[in-house]
Each structure stands twice: as structure tokens, then as C-alpha cells.
Prior knowledge:
Three copies of one chain form a homotrimer. Chain A is an alpha+beta fold. Chain A has two domains: 8-127, 3-layer Sandwich (Rieske Iron-sulfur Protein); 138-346, Naphthalene 1,2-dioxygenase Alpha Subunit, Chain A, domain 1. Chain A contains seven helices and 18 strands. In chain A, the strands form four sheets. A seven-stranded antiparallel beta sheet of chain A has the order 12-18-17-16-15-14-13. A four-stranded antiparallel beta sheet of chain A has the order 2-3-4-9, with no helix packed on it. A four-stranded antiparallel beta sheet of chain A has the order 5-6-7-8, with no helix packed on it. Chains A and B meet through helix 2, helix 3, helix 4 and helix 6 of A and loops of B.
Amino acid sequence: MSAPENNYIWNCWYAAAWAHEVESAGKLERTFLDKPVVMFRGESGRYVALDNRCCHRAAPLSMGRVEGDCIRCMYHGLKFNSDGICVEIPGQDKIPATHRVRSYPVEERGNLLWIWMGDPNLADPNDIIDYEPLTNPEWQGLPQEAYLHYDCNWMLIIDNLADFSHLAFVHTNTLGGSEAYAVETKQEIERLDNGFQFERWHRESAPAPYHVKAYPNGPDVVDRRNYVQMFVPGVFLMETAFGPVGWDQSDDQSDVKQYRNCQYMTPETGSTAHFFWNYLRNYEQSDESISISLRDSLLEGFWEDKVIIEAQQKLLELDDPFQPRGIAADSALAHFRKTWDTLLEKDHTEHPQPVAEVSRSIL
Amino acid sequence: MSAPENNYIWNCWYAAAWAHEVESAGKLERTFLDKPVVMFRGESGRYVALDNRCCHRAAPLSMGRVEGDCIRCMYHGLKFNSDGICVEIPGQDKIPATHRVRSYPVEERGNLLWIWMGDPNLADPNDIIDYEPLTNPEWQGLPQEAYLHYDCNWMLIIDNLADFSHLAFVHTNTLGGSEAYAVETKQEIERLDNGFQFERWHRESAPAPYHVKAYPNGPDVVDRRNYVQMFVPGVFLMETAFGPVGWDQSDDQSDVKQYRNCQYMTPETGSTAHFFWNYLRNYEQSDESISISLRDSLLEGFWEDKVIIEAQQKLLELDDPFQPRGIAADSALAHFRKTWDTLLEKDHTEHPQPVAEVSRSIL
Amino acid sequence: MSAPENNYIWNCWYAAAWAHEVESAGKLERTFLDKPVVMFRGESGRYVALDNRCCHRAAPLSMGRVEGDCIRCMYHGLKFNSDGICVEIPGQDKIPATHRVRSYPVEERGNLLWIWMGDPNLADPNDIIDYEPLTNPEWQGLPQEAYLHYDCNWMLIIDNLADFSHLAFVHTNTLGGSEAYAVETKQEIERLDNGFQFERWHRESAPAPYHVKAYPNGPDVVDRRNYVQMFVPGVFLMETAFGPVGWDQSDDQSDVKQYRNCQYMTPETGSTAHFFWNYLRNYEQSDESISISLRDSLLEGFWEDKVIIEAQQKLLELDDPFQPRGIAADSALAHFRKTWDTLLEKDHTEHPQPVAEVSRSIL
Lengths: 363, 363, 363
């Protein structure tokens, strides 16, 4: 593993937390791209993200006290405003301009907080991928937006989502179905400058187990459609529909059940990742039991992924050389990794990370 | 610790598992010499050992599914035969010849599976040290052949077994006896090209506590004989007998109780080891309670070793230089380590490990 | 972190253990300055500290058996006297002079054992800081002298104790009090060649919560005095008094409650530390409930410190550069660290650590 500053695209928006994780005046300690951050909501309602290390001697601000839109370190009482500027040192009148912690731009879209870990001057909120179903009342999501922590490089989760043939083997009894899904369906991807998209049909097959659980009264044989989009740095958006055979050629869409799914992968470190997700539907929105069924089924499926991906991570970390061999189904993940590399090089070339000057460690 | 490829003799047979650990169509994930391996028994009865990392993206084959003598990776469905050749990729017709995982020769002898981690072309099953009592019905072993995992370099276990004076101090109340054992008995070793052997008598002494537990009606004073053999890479074979004083000069051997003991040490990594053992006797073979007594006593004794050896390992791992000082009783272990070094150099010179070409890590 | 030998002042006395931790003929395994030590009390009453690694093959002497003032390794029976010289090898007549373990000078003062990790020839017991209240019957201490283990560099605990403004924020409800303590009181330090001292008054304030718990019938408004001394390598001594306002100008000291407090910080490794402490008073000495109250209050306060300091350690260990920014209240800790650096350079220049010759690792 190379130095952290070389691993990441710095100047882009990363999913950071669901709003409910950062309660009003509460504090969330979370690491992004190897950097420790404290997030909190100020009393004005503003979300704030700061370096979690008090500039004095690195005591955690996440153990501090929110005061207005400021936070006070509860070790020696230094107080920082939402720009990270130290505005109070108890018993000391003059505060040097060097006394500040780094502040990270934060934006909220559809209850999802996004963070910008690069140069704040480059942060344009218009670049955030705002997923429309999250705020559209036609779509009903989970009882609460969900989070999982992975002990793996975030790119392995992206790999997972880039090849749907794994549904047949990993998720046979949950999100996938028969192994025919891997063999019979093709995944023709559309290559984008910042990711990929593809549509994948599975015709005349049994509906996926999770759908049957949520909606037991549908047809036994369906045409299943997935429309997938994946964007740098790790944004996965998917439309899923189950309907009677041939529904896409029919005027009657009344028996077609639609889902909207978003998943966000954000590096915590090079070997651990944050994973955020919601799963929404446009039918029987007021039936809470369906929301719970979908939450439980999806979580069951994600755990199937998590177990195998974390095992994969451990095997890849071994001090024993491993040469991966590509297969045809890798086209999406291969393009995504190539895209990532291109954008990373561009980011590092155009916006080199400032070199930190550290006079001396206090350890 | 140097790179893994430099630490081991590659071209020799290592004890890998008892057959009962690899149930029919079950899968055993185990690391040998820093390399991750999956072992399973194919439906034909054949034992198979493969690199545990699917050649696609290192998902663990040990989470796969045995099909005939093949195993299918349950991530994206690649199927490998017992030679490690990929014979199926779902949804893909052509399979490149590069798509394979390493296959390791495996042989079974007396319920013990042996693995060859070096060049398969050099693997000669005739070189396996086949311990005759394991298959000779005159000898009754434990209720089940036994395994322990050690958090130490395997050579420290070999050191332990190479000097029997530790019986007096570590195993006073279990396998050893009084401290006179360390002082009064001499251990004249015979140096071999691939190990050592020695005979050690303890005359006119109390029988060892474990023997008294298993066979309470023997004489109170005995002559005890141990005949020990140790071979590279870590094969320990021992004949033990307790009999009336002077039994070796007597025609009457009826009161002499004989044991046969095998112990196998295999490196998992440079700091962890596999340990396999059985303990057999040629008296009252049908009395299961004696087998159980011996199993419990030996396990008690091995735990005494394990505690002190693992503490030794921790102290040797410290970043504080340690200069070992030899004692007279080190002759066996010193010869073994010298033998190991000679054979290791010969192995590395005559059969250099192939250099792995890795185009790029996917982490 | 640089190599252990460069991190420490070797030639000085470090607090090592309370006497009750080293019971007669018992053995205490403890690491100091990255070196593994076994401490025991010989049958003559003498305290002994030796390298915990038997010179033979590094088996832990702490698993050994005390015999007189010697200790016998219970792996192969080597016996070492209190100077670390091997005096017996079972079954071997001649013992080479090289067969010895390092012996560390140990001295006891007021139930506290001190160890000298440097050149034994330089160890002068007169240099030990013998805290008089520990042996003066006028001062009543805790029910038992206390120990805590910290997962942090010991210098971070010294930093903590060098700036009392943290009492206002970390110990509001235990050892400190209102935040006025940080703002209103000044800490004028006296710089010493081997540390610092200061006196800090807090006038006309509520007494600290821990004092109210121990002595509920005192005045509601007090003048509080702390007189603090800190010496290299990590010796903290403090006089504390709570009395009626203006008590220091009064002839009547009857309502002044006095405490004496000692705390000792000793590096275990670069990232872990030993912490020893006692808290004594000169009033109602026979009331055990006050001793218990003080013990519980102080422990509660030290846990408040421990939580924030260990979090600070973790943040400082991150692979993300951190530049500390000084504040006015840092004067004591800054002087202490400067003093430490000066004395460390002097120690390393005048008494270079001997270079260990190690022929070969047995791992």
C-alpha cells in the first residue's frame, strides 16, 4: 500500500453519513480517506465537518461540546468555529492565526451528507449526484437509511456491484435466483467518462426471492429488468422492475413492481470502507411491513457479499503474489478501474496535495 | 523475518491434515508455508489441494462448492478441476490457458494427508515417511487423531522435542517425572543427514504420571526407555517403554508396556504452526478408557509445552536483541537446525522458486 | 517511532512496581523501556529484577521458580542468581561465563520499587526521589497503593499533569470544578534542570467535588492551593490544600485540609505506559471510608484522563501528519520536554548504549 495521499481522488464528493447519524448537536467521529473527521450539526442547523484533532495536541474534538455552530475541545477548552478557526483559548487573550483545524465542505442531499476531502475552493455542490427518488414522495424507502462497515478496500465492493453474474452464486436464495442468471443474461455496458451504465434483462424466470417475500402475490414467471449506473468515486444507482412476461412491450404496467436502489462506497482507509444504502419502491408505500421485509432481505444479501469480499480482502493482503485473471464479465469493473486511474492522475496532477509541514511529533 | 520464499524448504512433504479433518466433499482452508490452500475430497475419493484464491479475483475457493472432483468458486461461478485448471466460466465459451490455480500434490498415509508445496514434478510419494504403527492393527491409537495450532515458529516445537531434559521441569506431573530425569540421564544422539535419533534410558525410577494413570497396576519402580527419531521438515517418531527394572535384559517382556508416538510440525507462517499427533499402545487395545486417558494426559502435557513455547515466541519477537547461549543438551536441536540449513540451501540452489509475475494488485 | 534505544534516558531511576505487586517469592513480569523484565522478592527479602528471557533460548523466567534469591527457568532448569549469573545447568558441570541474564538494580523506597535500566555501575540510590509522605505516619494513604496501565506514550500523561487548566474541562465533576479554574488562575512555573514546579491558587471558589465527597462538612467557599513538582523521568508530586478564604494569611490552620499526591509515569513501550499513584491526607487518618472515597474519586478522575489521552494517542499514531500548536498554558510541558531532550542527549552522548552482538535469531 502506498502512502494515503496517493491512493485517492481528493477533489470530489464522497458520501459521508446519513443525516440521522449526525443528530442535532451530536457528534459523529468518522475517518474518510485515512483522515479523521468529526461531523456535527450546529444549533443553526448547519452541518460541520472538521479535522477531529484539536490543533493544540490532537485531543479528539468528537469528545468535545457543541456550542452554537462551534465545537469546544473538552481537554483544554479551545473552541473552534465551523470554519475550523480557533475562536477561544481559556485564559489567553491572543489567538495566533495558525490555530485552526481543517474544515471540510459538507452538503446534504436527500438526507445524505456529502463531504469534500480536497481543496475547499474547488468544491462545487452542483457536482453532487443527487438521487431523485430519495426526496420524491412517490418512492418509499427503508424505515431508516442504512449503513454497513466493511473490512475491505472500497473498490472490492464496486467490483462486486459491477458484475451481476455474482447474483446467481452469492445470492441464490436472496437477491438473485437460479444460476441461469449468470449464464443466460448478457451485460452490455455503456462506458462513461466517470463510470458506466448497463441494462440487464432476465426473461421468463422466477422472480428473485427477496421480491417474492415483499410481494407474495405477483406472477410466478416474470421478466426482470435491472438498469445500473455506477459513478466515481463510488455511487451505485439502480432501477429494478419485476413484471409479467413481455411487460416492457405492454401498455399495462399495473402489475410491474418498481424499485429504486442507491448504494455508496466511501474509503475509510485502504483496507476498510463505509457503505450507505437505501432501497425504495413505488407500490403500497404505506405498508411498513414491506419496508421491513425489503430491509431484512437486502441486509441478508449484503452480508452474503460482505463475508466473501472480506475473505477476498484477507487473501489479497497476504504476502504471497496474486495475479488476477480477467473474465468477460469484468468489462464494467475493468472500465471503472481504468476511469478511476485516469481521474486520479488528473486530480493529482492538476491539484497536488499540499505537503504538510510538521516540525515535530509529540509521540 | 525474511521473505516467505526464503524461509522454507519447498521440495519436501509436509504433514497437512488428518483425513477426518477433510470430510468427503467438505473443504478445509489451511495455510502452509505462508500459502493459502483449500483441501477437499472429491466425490471419487481423491484428495485435492489447490491455491485457495480463485484465479479471477482471489475469492476463497474454500467457500466454494465441490462438484465431482472439481470445486466451483461461489463468487462468479468459475469451476476448477483437481489439477487447478479452470474448466468453466459461466456465460463464457473460451477459457484462456492462464486461468488456473496452483494445484499441490497430496498423498494419504495412515489417515495422514501429506502435501508437497514445491515443484510438483519433483514430488515422489516414496519419500513420504509412512509411520507403520498408524496402520498396524497391533497398535491402538487415540479415539481420533489429534491437532493443535501453535502461535510460534514450528522450529521452536522441534527444539522442544529435541531435548528431553525439559520433561523434568515442564512435565513434572504429566509426561515427565522427577528432576533426576534431567540430571541423571544422558542423551547421546546419532546425527543423520536429515535429522537425528537417540535412545534415552531412565533406570530405576518412578513411572511417568501419564503412564500410571493409563495403567495403574504396573510396578512402582521401572526402567523407562525412549527411542526418538526426528526428521526434516518436522517429523517426530518415538518408541516408549516402561517395564520392570532390567527388563531389557530379560526374556520375559510380558510386563513391558509399549507406546508409539508420532508428532508432526508444519509451518503455517513464520510465527504460527500446525501440530498433528497420535499416541498408540500395544496393550489392552480394546479398552477405550485407556485411549481416552492417554489422549487427555498427552493433551495436558502438550498444553504445558504450548504455554511456555508461545511465551518464548513472544519474547523472541521483541525488538530487543537476544543472543541465545547453548548448553550441552542442545546437541540434537543444534544438529537439526544445521541439517535444516544445509537442506534449505540445497533446495533453494537446485530448485529456485519461480518468480511470480504480478502485473498489478487489485487492492 | 525510532529504535527503542534512542527513545529513552537510560541512566536514571524509574518507578517499577509497588511492593505489594511483587509478593514474597512471587514473580512479576513487566516491560520497561521496551525491555522484558521479571521482578521477584528473594527469600532473603531482597528484590531482584532480571531480563525475563532465559539466556538459553528466551523462555520466560517469570514462569520460573524462585529458589532462595535465585530463580530457576522451568523449561530446561537453568538457575540464575540475583546478579543474573547462571549457577546451575542440570546435567552439565561446566557453566560458561557468557551464561547470564542482565540484572537490573532495584531499590525500595516507601513501598515503591525503583529500577535502573542503564549501566548498573552508574546507579546511585541517592538519586532516587524518595517521597517523604509515603513513610511518614502523619499521612494516611489509599487502602492500597494503586496502578493503572495506559495505552499511550508516557509523555502524554506528563503533558496532562503539566497543565492544570484541563481540570476545568476534563474533571468538572470530579477533581476539578468550574471552568473559571482554567480562565482565572495563572500557572507561573519555576523551571528546573530536571523538571519544573509551580504553585496555583484558586481563590474564593467552590471546593472540588472529590474533596466535598471525602469531607462533606467543610466550608462552601474555599481558597484552593496546589503546589506541583514534576521531575524527569516522570515523577509528579503535589501538595493540595482546601481551607477557608484567606487561610494562608491566618494563624488558624485547623480548618485547612491537606493532601499529598504522588504519581509516577514509566514507559512500558513507546506507545504504552505504567502509572503508579497514591493519595494521602493528614486528617481523620483512621477513617477508612475517607481513604476509600478518595481512591474512588481519584480513579474516576484518572479514567477521565485515560479515555481522552488514549484517544489522543490513537489520533497521533495515524499516518496523517499532525502539527501541534502551542498555547500559553503549555509552558510547563514545553519546558519538561526540552529538559527531557537535553538530558537524553547528555545520557546518550556520555553513556552510549552498548551494541548488542547477536550471532543469529532462532526464529
